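User: Please predict the structure of the protein below. I'd like the answer in structure-token form so I can feed it into my own downstream comparison script.

Assistant: Understood. Taking the following sequence of 352 residues as input:
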Amino acid sequence: METESPGSRTTTGLGWAGSALILTAVVAIAAKTVGVLIAPGSRGVLSGNAVNAVDLLSGALAYTLVGLLVALVCGASFELARARGVNPLARGGVVAVSGLIVALASPAVVERLHTFPSLALAVITSLVALIAGVVVIRAPQTRALGGVLALLAMCGMLRVVAWETSAVSFERASHEMHTVARGFATAAVALQAIAALLAAAWIGTRSKLRGRVLSNVAILLAFAITWLASRTSDAPTAFEAVLRTSLPAAVGLPSPYLLGSIAAFLLPASILLAGVALVQRAQPPAVVPSLALALLSHGTFDVPLQALLVTAAAQWATHAMSDDRSIWVSLVRARSEKSALPRPAAGTTESA
């Protein structure tokens, strides 16, 4: 009787996960667009029926996304438990703490999390993302993803420190502490921007059209959306009015120094870059959708959905690192696409 090798188990696990990760990333992009980019600014701008429809769609997408993310986290835990190419201590830590993240985020399905559980969720999620980022950055096929995870993990931790310092400053009426809190918030935005730039640079090197061109288009569209939200107009359109409320709300508290516009820009940029990442071909099956999920987490892990997004990304990035065959599959696909391009006709090139 034939036995199944560890390598074949890894490939099989990543095979089913590729489709599930892509589906989850598509739902996450839709949920982030409706629930974060449109819904907060729709009240008072759109009609009552339109606002109700947006809220209904946002809720349906959010609940669907929660179910998909919990399934992915559970599936990744099972696959990581039998993976052989990852350090056992790091693998066990990621699996164990991921279960704690699901437990902390679960009550948000029925009620808003209180302050302490939200802070605990943010800190623990940041640690998982940091551990996964440091682990997977060693493998060539997950190096860029590891860098993005590590940067977002530090961003999430800095946001917790900024929020707590700001809260203490208000309690003690301390202007100096509030200044320090804004400094931490500024550093968090800077790290998130670097993570987005790293992701855009990696996507841009995947291919000329799907990578470089589409990533540049995504950044230009994000700039255009941010400009529409910030420009002054006596008679703004409904779209502009919605953006004027939604984008500033994404900046969070405390507000950063000088980087408020960049913080607002990162919301549409992360959504658009996540969409561009999903259309990349010739890549390991779990890397591209994991990058999309990490970008959509926005480095704000006190929000349960965003904590689950980066947790799923961290787990499957760790699992993708152990799949030695995935990098060869990506190279074969890239060579196949390159060989499929039309060759110049004979006689059109100059002889040496």
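That's the full token string. The chain has a mean pLDDT of 85.
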